[in-house]
Structure to design on (389 residues):
């Protein structure tokens, strides 16, 4: 079945009238392929003027060239006094019945807006620092000749420090972006080939888990209400727990954006998180992730010296953290005490010490047959087959 999305609209909310009855019965629908190729499609409701139906004006713009760099939100933007005006100008003019599609398109429109605004506002940061420094030097000379320039020099120093601070923030975030040189595609293909082979090794045969082993906690878990629709307060608390400097996902928006613009964008963010808990399927834009390689050693020249991690969108992180925060207080009751790793309040060292004691006991003489003990060390999870999970 084709998945069609309402493209939303700008203008008057109703498109049809009969007497005192007003309804919105005219809509523009599109599927995934259309949104991928013509994401910046806008629908405007025009004046009726002699008709009982309102004409719909559909403006179609092609998507951004695929060779253009992906959008990356820069945290330094939020410190600019005009930043919230840029967000509000985009967020206040769009309507859509599907919360996932609405937030998707708002993200894309805002990304284009902020990219243009960045070129106009922050592109000349280096020049601004040089100019501010020249003003300070000039005022320092004037102050040596005339003490009346004390206040002017103080203000000029403040301006220079602010410009340097913005420049350092911008350079710090840009420094985290990877640059692989001119052979980018060849490196990507080689990395994909390596990790595909690593994660698609022969299947591991595992014993079937018996459902009756969990009967003792089945009633308890059924009363936890883990899938209840989260409140605004729960969503906001979860958002605040995410580090603002964490790398963004495929959409390019970091947690700093959501926190700074919360008062403007919160209704749409809350809608999509709550939509997930009501069973509404998210679109690929929010579920996609970027695989990034983290170095294990100071100097790396082989792919097995990298650890792959996934960078997901902030919306995806909020949903995951809401679920984690709900179930975490109950893990000690649900999970058997024999499991000591990855449980808060327990330590994997306990099992290490127990294994050490057992190994030492092997040297003791005992009555009866002698037994061999085989110890198998698993590779780290980053090197194990995905079938392990």
């Amino acid at each position: 079945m084709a998945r069609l999305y309402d493209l939303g609209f700008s203008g008057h909310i109703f498109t049809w009238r009969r007497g005192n009855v007003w309804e919105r019965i005219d809509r523009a629908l599109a599927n995934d392929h259309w949104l991928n190729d013509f994401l910046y499609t806008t629908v405007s409701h025009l004046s009726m003027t002699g008709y009982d139906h309102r004409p719909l004006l559909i403006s179609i713009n092609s998507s951004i060239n695929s060779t253009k760099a992906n959008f990356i939100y820069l945290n330094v933007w939020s410190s600019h006094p005009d930043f919230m005006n840029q967000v509000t100008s985009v967020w206040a003019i769009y309507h859509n019945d599907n919360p996932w599609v609405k937030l998707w398109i708002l993200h894309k429109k805002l990304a284009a807006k902020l990219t243009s605004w960045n070129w106009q506002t922050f592109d000349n940061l280096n020049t601004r620092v040089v100019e501010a420094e020249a003003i300070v030097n000039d005022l320092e000379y004037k102050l040596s000749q005339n003490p009346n320039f004390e206040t002017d020099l103080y203000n000029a120093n403040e301006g220079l420090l602010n410009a340097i601070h913005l420049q350092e923030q911008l350079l710090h975030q840009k420094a985290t972006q990877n640059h692989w040189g001119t052979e980018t595609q060849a490196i990507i293909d080689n990395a994909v080939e390596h990790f595909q082979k690593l994660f698609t090794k022969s299947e591991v045969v595992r014993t079937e888990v018996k459902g009756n082993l969990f009967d003792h906690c089945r009633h308890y878990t059924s009363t936890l209400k883990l899938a209840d629709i989260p409140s605004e307060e729960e969503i906001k608390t979860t958002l605040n727990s995410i580090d603002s400097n964490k790398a963004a996902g495929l959409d390019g928006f970091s947690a700093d954006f959501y926190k700074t613009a919360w008062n403007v964008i919160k209704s749409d963010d809350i809608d999509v998180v709550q939509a997930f808990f009501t069973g509404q399927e998210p679109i690929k834009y929010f579920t996609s992730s970027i695989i990034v390689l983290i170095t294990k050693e100071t100097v790396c020249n082989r792919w097995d010296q990298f650890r792959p991690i996934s960078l997901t969108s902030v919306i995806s992180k909020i949903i995951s953290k809401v679920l984690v925060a709900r179930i975490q207080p109950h893990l000690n009751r649900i999970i058997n005490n024999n499991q000591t790793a990855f449980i808060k309040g327990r330590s994997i060292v306990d099992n290490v010490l127990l294994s050490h004691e057992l190994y030492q006991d092997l040297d003791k003489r005992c009555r009866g047959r002698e037994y061999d003990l085989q110890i198998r060390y698993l590779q780290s999870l980053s090197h194990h087959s995905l079938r392990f999970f």
User: Anything to note?
Assistant: The chain is about 45% helix and 10% strand. Residues 39 and 315 are 20 Å apart (CA to CA). Residues 184-203+212-362 form one domain. The first strand starts at residue 5 and ends at 6.
